[in-house]
């Protein structure tokens, strides 16, 4: 009963008006249409991996004699026959399907041997069907093998004038070997191709071990094998679709970095992801370079030919090849995802299935095919044996049989007499009457007997196959062995165990050494470390920055662009910043206000910086304050992206946090004061504390004295102490005896009016370089070995010649190449 508000559809039928519910009719009609698309066009059959159009093309070409051992024929002939007999759709639809089965870059194992222009990986269209020629590939014959032995069902074509197969016998699992793609109504399939040799081994495994697991299959067939080769990143997506029928596989081009003349480099691309248009890819890269979205590309050429693919991206001399390549992976089709949906028709119904189920459907199909083939062969063998048995009877009574035939009035009379006299069947009697005289010779009689005995053995064997299912399993295994030997090949796509991670901005930044400076008034900048040339001790230096009035450089250190910088403020808080996030500036530039990069509170200023490669490293941060307090905290406690900063130490009174060092917890600490005192003690004297802890006393200070340096003792290094007036000295660290934490220390530099108060101290190696910057921004870079080693109770030598009124602002050690490696 229909609702009064439901629109009605009048259908005129045999002069009657039938009222139908419109919404129900639309739903029913759309469902029929959807199922027609799903079954008749878009989805492959799980048994042979074929859509109807592909199945009809192969069957029709076989009927036309377009076989591998014969000459190619015009593609138009094949397309016309398919349309005329089986597939009444557009010419282009059929021709496109035929072309794809001939493209070596589309199918892992092409089923059609094409002659002429069948398109290219550049997206070039194929020539018109009247110009190209085609024939079945040898592997296609395996799809059609035994089709004339009642192995599959046939159905009437659209006009009921011919018959077509509902499925092909398919000796190998074509759906997994060549993959499939299709969009139906409300669903889609996207099955990747696999290596045929591995598939044969997988089928054999399931035949012998039906309970095999996904892990067992993965050991035999590790994943997709694309016709365009390339790389697959990670195994998770493969394991997902092997287990569930759905997953995402990350494909990547095969690229290599090659050196060129004049210290330049080039990126060479020899393989690209499956289904990527090479010409579009090249245009995409060119557009990025032209629009300046990627820096460093000087020239782009495609040298691909019949021998293989070769795309050459020439880079500028100062370009970092790895950074450019990572950018291309992120912004071009050099890296693509293949979303796997193992959707196929099972008993006419769409179903998503894991790999094992897909293989099982193929195996069950092959069992049915072999059983039907065996039944067909048995029927033929029994029919022939029946005829031969009649021959054997007649040959025993040959003279009498001849007399009966000679006296007979006609053939019907002769047939009746033979059947009556020798108890022959109608078929046997007809065969006797059709015998030729040459079959009456002794040789022919022997041949008949031999053929009869052979047929009886064959019949016995065929019946045994039907009676014992394990025989069918053996036959499938033999087919797999033969297919593997005749058509199997090596894997093309390489699977890399490392999962494909999202390319971050850090991957697009060249990793290079740089100098970071922080001024007292909170200005920060970075420069390449080679900005400053090496000079001799006592030189005048070069301008390192142009400062605003009365600003001084308080911190200078060396790191790489990929490190994380932990900034510690005088108030004991810690902030994160990636090194590449520090704005680059010229040597004379003042820099960027640090408050623009860090969310520091009013009155806070950065007093210490630690360069960290990652927070997973085992170790801790050792801190020291201006008033001699020390503290040790695990590095992992600072692993957070909190922009507002973290508490690093709780300070008392006017104390300030000025030094932080990364350590393994087993080092010795050297603290130096402004008044020229120092203390050396082991880190073991300081227990590890949480971030909010206040710390313990490191050195006992005299009235008015403050700590100016804290560093870690390194064997083979010396302690370099610098005074405000540009004097400094290098002293063997062994001259400083071990003391207990909290003592008053010993003399490390004789402080005079000439030297000025101690400004800083740092551990150095003779192969290191020292960078010194004055409060007026003058920088000098010199070798440590040029600084004479003297005793700890001395004034030292001149490190930098200062202008009147200028003072040393900061010093920093640049490690030697030997130590860095």
Task: List descriptors.
elongated, four-stranded mixed β-sheet, disordered C terminus, alpha+beta, 4 domains, Topoisomerase II, domain 5, Topoisomerase, domain 3, Gyrase A, domain 2, 43 strands, 821 residues
Q: What's the short version?
A:
By secondary structure, the protein is of the alpha+beta class. Helix 3 (75-85) crosses helix 4, helix 7 runs antiparallel to helix 17 (469-487) and helix 12 (355-396) crosses helix 15 (426-433).
What can you tell me about this protein's structure?
The longest helix is centred in the middle third of the chain and has 42 residues. This protein has 821 residues and is an alpha+beta fold. The strands form 13 sheets. Strands 16-11-10-19 form a 4-stranded mixed β-sheet. The chain has a 4-stranded antiparallel β-sheet with strand order 12-13-15-14, covered by helices on one side. Helix content is 29%, strand content 26%. It folds into 4 domains: 182 residues, Topoisomerase II, domain 5; 80 residues, 2-Layer Sandwich (Gyrase A, domain 2); 129 residues, Topoisomerase, domain 3, CATH 1.10.268; 310 residues, Neuraminidase, CATH 2.120.10.
Helix content: 25-40%
Give me the CATH architecture of the largest domain, please: 6 Propeller
Helix/sheet category: alpha+beta
Taking the alpha carbons of the first and last residues, their distance comes to: 86 Å
CATH class of the largest domain: Mainly Beta
- Find the count of extended strands (DSSP E, 2+ residues): 43
- Poorly predicted regions are 533-552, 816-821
Strand proportion, as a percent range, falls in 25-35%
Q: What about the largest sheet?
A: 4 strands, mixed
